[in-house]
Amino acid sequence: MEKMKWTFGILLLLGVHMYFIKADNAGLYPPSEELNDEQGGGDDDVCDCPRTKRLVCGTDGVTYFNLCSLICASDKDPSIAMKYLGRCSIMG
């Protein structure tokens, strides 16, 4: 019985860990993909942003991968600024 408790506990911890790994990227573009125009990507960009994940919410309601990505987007649209650190809220 004790062995079953340990096995269940370990499986539960692994499951929770995997959930948060998967949920962390929900709604975001993975770092290996190119950013779209709205997120600061595009052929005419000169920004070479690091792939360091530090989510930033823009005033346009878009969650950017990091501040550099937001700055690239604001170069195209000066009305975009940082609203707060972290993922943009779904509720607005």
From TrEMBL:
Residues 41-90 form the Kazal-like domain. Transmembrane segments: none annotated. The keyword Signal applies. Keywords: Protease inhibitor, Serine protease inhibitor, Signal. Residues 1-23 form the signal peptide. The keyword GTP-binding does not apply. Pfam families: Kazal_2. GO terms for molecular function: serine-type endopeptidase inhibitor activity. This is Serine protease inhibitor dipetalogastin-like. It comes from Spodoptera frugiperda.
